Amino acid sequence: MAFFVLDYAIKIFAIGFVPEGRRPSSSTAWLLAILLLPFIGLPLFLLMGSPQINRRRHRIQQEANDAIEDAHKDVTDHPFEELEAEVESIIKLNRHLTGFPAVIGHNLGIHADYRKSIQAMADAIDQAQRYVYVEIYITSWDETTDPFFQALARARQRGVEVKFLFDQIGSLKYKGYRTLGKRLSEIDVDWRLMLPLQIHKARFRRPDLRNHRKLVVIDGERGFIGSLNLIKREYKTTDRYWIDYMVELTGPIVVSLQAVFAVDWYTESGEYIEMLTELEDTGETPDTNYVQLIPSGPGYSTVPNLRMFISLIHHAKSRLIICSPYFVPDESLLDAVTTACYRGVRVELYVSQRADQFMVDHAQSSYYQSLLEAGIHIYQFPKPFVLHSKFVLADPDAGRADPEETDEGIRLKSHPLAAFGSSNLDMRSFGLNYESTMLVAQGDLITEFNELAANYRAVSHELTLEEWNKRGFFRRYIDNVMRLTSALQ
């Protein structure tokens, strides 16, 4: 009798409290877990679903937002060419949610070759004179990443300050983790774990949170941002190879990159890093881009990356490119993507033929039916490669946003936009991961990412609705079960 009373008490409690402040998909998933398995679901919810556990990080993030806004209060959003009102509204949205202005960034190249990306960062570190700040989700000192760490060692020998952040859970399962901290200390690198689970030190946090950012800042003048982790291309497999990129930038945008690192370093160490204000710019050159950094994560209650992605999707007039290893949309994102297709936009989705995670692979593919029926072109990057690159392009082939005359009257040409960085288009990246995404409002980065997408398309297989309808019952069942788990927060 007592068992049934407790069982119903848990369910009644859950129905009244779980939905508070949550998206419907998340509430439904948690309620399903609690109602079916109350004695397992409720402890998991209290462990991973309660926002109260993150109170300290929310406070630090709010204080950081205030400091960033104050540091940038005199920095105006200055494009080197006048932008249309719709693009300016997206920039205004991002600044309101994060405090970061849109500034100039000079594109030094998209490094899309795995080893060459690591070497490019090592080469830049060899030029450092004052400091190097590194924040990478997965970090492993192996034969592929050794040139990077040797560059850090040389920097320390020159007296350059080096600070390094890496995610504990993200790095834990890879070879060499147990000795990684010791090796970093041996080369005199000041390092910290991001989001550590250190119960013995009275440090507890939700075990489902991750700091997924990938940033490198050198002397406050040069920065890298992208999708690449510091680990060999095979990770710990023997039959899969990751496809990634890093973008190298100079100019005022590096101030924003350093600000994100400074906040994360303070959160984990309690130590302040000088908050830069505005860097002097060398002026407009062919590599000049108008960019804006959008950090996101559990410290932000407004999901700025999701809102920015949806804004880009609604902005597209003729062509939309989405490249994400994990495409598990919530209702708003799914509606935006399919609506774009119904508006006549050609929508291209680039994913791996086989993702590296079983649950995500099946949760993602559970959406293929509705996507294909809407007319979306799904391109699958072939095995054994894992397409880990993340970016979104809206009308990358368009020119200036000048009006043009058609038989139907005056029509505005679309303004090309791009967004790239560490964020996937899945519910984890929107609610559980700390991410860093860069909006490109104008510049040659849009063209280069369009060319990168074309390279991916040339080797990919386009999935058709006829082909997808041939999948078996068991595949459909597993996909749908995994779909239910994707919204748990």
Automatic annotation (TrEMBL):
This is Cardiolipin synthase. InterPro entries: CLS_N (IPR027379), PLD-like_dom (IPR025202), PLipase_D/transphosphatidylase (IPR001736). Pfam families: PLDc_2, PLDc_N. It is found in: Cell membrane. SUPFAM superfamilies: Phospholipase D/nuclease. The keyword Transmembrane applies. The keyword Acyltransferase does not apply. It comes from the Bacteria. Keywords: Cell membrane, Membrane, Transmembrane, Transmembrane helix. It is a multi-pass membrane protein. It comes from Corynebacterium casei LMG S-19264. The chain crosses the membrane at residues 29-49.
